[in-house]
Amino acid sequence: MLKLDPVESKKIWGYELWLASTHKNGLQKAFAEKCGDFPLLVKIIQADDILSVQVHPDDESARELEGKDERGKTECWYVLDANEQSQIVYGLKKNVSREELKKAVEENQLEQYLNFVKVKKGDFVFIPSTTVHAIGKGLRLLEVQQSCDLTYRFYDWGRGREVHLEKALKVMSSKTMPTIQQFSGSFECDYFSLEQINVCGGWSMYCSGSNASKDTQLLFVLEENHAVIKSPDEKIPTALKSEDIYAVFPGEKITVEGKARIMRIRAK
Q1: Which positions ≥6 away from 160 have C-beta within 8 Å?
Q2: pLDDT per residue over 88-140, tens digit each?
Q3: Are 229 and 240 in contact (CB under 8 A)?
Q4: What is the pTM of this model?
Q5: Alpha-carbon span 219 to 172, nearest angstrom
Q6: How far apart, in Å, do the first and last CA atoms of the chain sit?
Q7: Is 161 a catalytic site residue?
């Protein structure tokens, strides 16, 4: 078991904490030494201002546009905190052509085609690759994604940063997005699964498998109340704190004692 130390990345809109990463742009060496190329990347995103409207490629497009070793980026968000007015951009309004979108970006008038959705603490949002999206002001999110740092900035609210319009238009899709709801307790897609564990007294888990780069599991502490975590070879348990994250490697067993809510994250 390894407690992972976050890598902070400051942004003009706030900051990111890369909680679990073997990606070169936010490498946690101790984690990488244990599991090599882990296929997921876990972050906290603190948005004090709205992020750019952006889109991420799928696996095929990432390899075509950026190189054979690249992955696409499917991701999801669990809302850790939100202001009353917090909202996200979640896809596009229907029946919008790429030509209309390109013209709107060039004229700084894209807002009319964006689908804005209010979100609140505890909501869960799935963002498949090729989805147009943006994180709004006043949000703190847990993000689980493929281990990829490819972002095509589509629209930046007139802030003057570089946009990647041609690539964004090439990879984006305009599918109908599902309704955003409170997290149901579990979720899975082709790349990862999430499961909320509600510990009241005690809970144990064994990490099965033999391939550390695929079978390693992550435990993110959503909330705790005098809870501790320990493995059989540790005499003194470790006190949990909210937003801590632990990697549990194949062959290891851990126990959590006390009261806590934990997000269990696994690669597929």
Answers
A1: none
A2: 999 998 778 889 999 999 898 999 999 999 999 999 999 999 999 999 999 99
A3: yes
A4: 0.96
A5: 32
A6: 20
A7: no
